[in-house]
Q: What sequence folds into this?
């Protein structure tokens, strides 16, 4: 199947700093990528839909200025957690759609710990 | 909004069958999915079923869909220790133009020797 890679897989940062997480589709072009957040022992919550060349579409309750999403190319979307605080600690997962089939391929996830 | 519910935990013995259940509320669901998540990893698509089907079999996996009751199940035959993971059901409906996946709470499957 298609491969989606995230980097870094694990990051620890101090409160107040910004952290960037990359999501790459390695063997296909993805016009649409999705960012999810997963709390411990909970399901995935869709944060935003990232569209190549345009602004991301955020889900209700997700702060746009807090979670900056950039989809600069057909193979790369980035999520920047700005001025991170301990409550932003979570597992962030991206996914990318192959064409219009509806099938999504997920990255390995990035665990963010804010001290 | 749409809601997808699963039981939180299931424990089975190796070699037995596992059945993971899921209920959903979105009557416009078009595709329903089962994903597997191993510790610290992303999600792996196991299988999916279109809403006009009531059963799909793929090797050890059998998906049953009762659209009337909005009930989806995943049966894993001859469960192995490598099947231990969290299993999420998910659905897409008409919300968000069919792009939005709504996930269940996840069922942790533990396979014991």
A:
């Amino acid at each position: 199947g298609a491969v989606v890679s995230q980097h870094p897989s694990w990051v620890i940062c101090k409160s107040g700093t910004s952290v960037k997480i990359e999501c790459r589709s390695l063997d296909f072009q993805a016009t649409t990528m999705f960012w999810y957040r997963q709390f411990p022992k909970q399901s995935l919550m869709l944060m935003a839909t990232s569209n190549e060349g345009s602004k991301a579409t955020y889900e209700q309750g997700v702060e746009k200025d807090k979670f900056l999403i950039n989809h600069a190319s057909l193979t790369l979307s980035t999520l920047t957690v700005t001025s991170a605080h301990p409550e932003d600690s979570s597992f962030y997962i991206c996914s990318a759609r192959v064409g219009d089939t509806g099938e999504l391929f997920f990255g390995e996830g990035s665990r963010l710990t804010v001290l | 909004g749409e809601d997808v519910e699963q039981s939180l935990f299931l424990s089975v013995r190796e070699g037995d069958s596992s059945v993971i259940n899921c209920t959903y509320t979105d009557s416009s669901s078009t595709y329903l999915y089962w994903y597997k998540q191993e510790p610290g990893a992303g999600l792996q698509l196991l299988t999916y079923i279109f809403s006009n089907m009531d059963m799909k079999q793929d090797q050890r996996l059998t998906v049953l869909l009762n659209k009337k009751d909005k009930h989806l199940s995943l049966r894993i035959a001859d469960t192995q220790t490598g099947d231990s993971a969290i299993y999420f059901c998910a659905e897409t409906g008409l919300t968000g133009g069919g792009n939005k996946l709504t996930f269940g709470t996840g069922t942790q499957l533990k396979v014991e020797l």
Remarks:
- The radius of gyration of chain B is 14 Å.
